[in-house]
Design a protein that fits this description.
It is a single chain. By secondary structure, the protein is α+β, with helices and mostly antiparallel strands. Helices cover about 25% and strands about 35% of the residues.
């Protein structure tokens, strides 16, 4: 099949237009929220002190860290008392840790009262969401830890998250 000269010119113009189109604002945004860099640095120091082989990253408004995790099959009861079908969820093994932190606009609007811990049978899930009126944002935090977690680590982590406003620019 042969393209007509008019079609070929149109395709060439389309190609040049695509190449010359400037990046959108979403594409120009940095992959890391600069406001979270100091908080990330403080968290990384804390985690490396207690978990030297922890891996972590910051992406947009989220911070993630983990060490020695695996997939668990977790059952949870419904409000009726019946059990849900099990589902796979990542969690820490003994000596491990798993956490996700996200800076979200506005006050926490979740169903769970926070701070609160949830027993996931194989590990505990700590949910925090401290609020900053200065930034009109909250730091939605999930920390999963096994029974052998160091209590001083938990205390330092909770204090750091509760005082996140000191580290967010």
């Amino acid at each position: 099949m042969r393209a007509t000269p008019r079609c070929a010119r149109f395709l060439a113009l389309l190609f040049v237009t695509i190449l010359a189109t400037p990046l959108t604002a979403a594409e120009e945004q940095p992959l890391q929220n600069p406001a979270l860099k100091r908080l990330y640095s403080e968290l990384r120091t804390l985690f490396r002190r207690h978990y030297p082989n922890v891996t972590s990253h910051i992406l947009n408004d989220r911070i993630h860290f983990e060490h020695d995790t695996r997939i668990f099959l977790v059952h949870e009861p419904l409000k009726t008392g019946e059990w849900q079908d099990p589902w796979e969820t990542r969690g820490p093994k003994r000596g491990g840790i798993l956490g996700d932190i996200e800076l979200r606009k506005g006050r926490y609007q979740g169903a769970a009262v926070v701070p609160q811990t949830f027993d996931k049978r194989y590990f505990t899930l700590l949910v925090l969401a401290p609020y900053s009126s200065k930034h009109d944002a909250h730091l939605y935090t999930h920390l999963s830890y096994p029974a052998d977690v160091d209590s001083s680590f938990l205390k330092q982590f909770t204090e750091l998250i509760d005082d996140f406003i000191k580290y967010v620019d």
